[in-house]
């Protein structure tokens, strides 16, 4: 296996009708000033060439395998080719391309697990477009865990973490309807989410003893049971168990007062009970520079925090900051992992 510095990141194209192609071109074109980590784009070279032309970019695109990506990267944007079934039109997603979109993700995992790529960075997918084609996973997070389980034979619990300079936040339940949240918030799920988060923050992010703040589910963390029972009956005992095991952990905290500046200074990561409880503060505090990173997997995966932004595709106005942050974080986590092994 080549050393980590000689391996590219595997970057998936995402939904080609969205801004993934635009921002991939941007991070490559600005590779010197932005110090973009070398990547291999897994996607349709014809769609990428068309998007570059539409945007007025003069970009050299070269098809290569993963081994050739690092040597190619300075001169041309390296692409591991796959073909979209339907013609790609910006802002007009087509479920006929679901196979190419998910195929890029599967290929990225395979290259990373076999050690030719150092980590996976995913461009955004539109979930509903894939659901229309029969995709049975809520999002990348759950799909990546399924691929990981198939490759390793291990049962995995994938954890979504939004990580930015001002906040790291983890939702315990992820892509489920709000009405299903209380039933899915079991002590076991909360415990394992906290434990995996603490382990990965220590082992992958280098935080020796992460300080964890856990949100309650209900207003005022239940107000002693008057506004809901889950905070004291379900969440608090898990926190007490983790504290007894040596984790630096507080909660359940009223969610409305745990994200202001002074509160955030008291912890490293916020464990939240549902998707929007974590993602609203994360995106409000750092939409351009936060990264969606999946913990609990046998490989590193990051992604920009935003979605496909279809209406911006092909217009030259999509910001590439979050993709750059995702590439940079994936490279750093890969380096930390290889240091841990040496
Ligand atoms: N990691 C992933 O694959 C993600 C996928 N999605 C998917 O994206 C689709 C659209 O979701 P939305 O809720 O509309 O979120 P979105 O993030 O695509 O767009 C929200 C707003 O932010 C703007 N925006 C997003 N990215 C931007 C960028 N790079 N530069 C400038 N402006 C930007 C959009 O124009 C829009 O006004 C959905 O189908 C959803 O499933 C959403 C989040 C993450
Ligand atoms: N809202 C975040 C999101 O939908 C990203 O999900 P995933 O596709 O990374 O699982």
UniProtKB/TrEMBL annotation:
Listed A to Z, the keywords are: Cobalt, Cytoplasm, Magnesium, Metal-binding, NAD, NADP, Oxidoreductase, Pyridoxine biosynthesis, Zinc
Recall the taxonomic lineage recorded for the source organism: Bacteria, Pseudomonadati, Pseudomonadota, Alphaproteobacteria, Hyphomicrobiales
GO cellular component term, pick one:
cytoplasm
Any one GO MF term held by the record is:
cobalt ion binding
Record keyword Heme present: no
Q: What is its EC number?
A: 1.1.1.262
Record-given protein name: 4-hydroxythreonine-4-phosphate dehydrogenase
The UniProt annotation places a divalent metal cation binding at 175, 220, 275
**Which HAMAP family does this UniProt record tie to the protein?**
PdxA (MF_00536)
**What other facts are recorded?**
The active site is located at the dimer interface.
Q: Which residues cross the membrane?
A: none
The protein's organism comes out as Pararhizobium polonicum
Q: Which residues form a coiled coil?
A: none
Q: In which pathway does it act?
A: Cofactor biosynthesis; pyridoxine 5'-phosphate biosynthesis; pyridoxine 5'-phosphate from D-erythrose 4-phosphate: step 4/5
Q: Which GO terms describe its biological process?
A: pyridoxal phosphate biosynthetic process; pyridoxine biosynthetic process
Q: Which domain of life is it from?
A: Bacteria
Q: Which NCBIfam families match?
A: pdxA (TIGR00557), PRK05312.1 (NF003699)
Give me the residues that bind substrate, please.
140-141, 283, 292, 301
The protein's matches in Pfam families, at most eight in alphabetical order, are given as: PdxA
**Predominant localisation class:** cytoplasm
Stored SUPFAM superfamilies? Isocitrate/Isopropylmalate dehydrogenase-like
> Which cofactors are reported in the record for this sequence?
Zn(2+); Mg(2+); Co(2+)
Quaternary context: Homodimer.
Q: Which gene encodes it?
A: pdxA
This entry's comment on the bound cofactor is:
Binds 1 divalent metal cation per subunit. Can use ions such as Zn(2+), Mg(2+) or Co(2+).
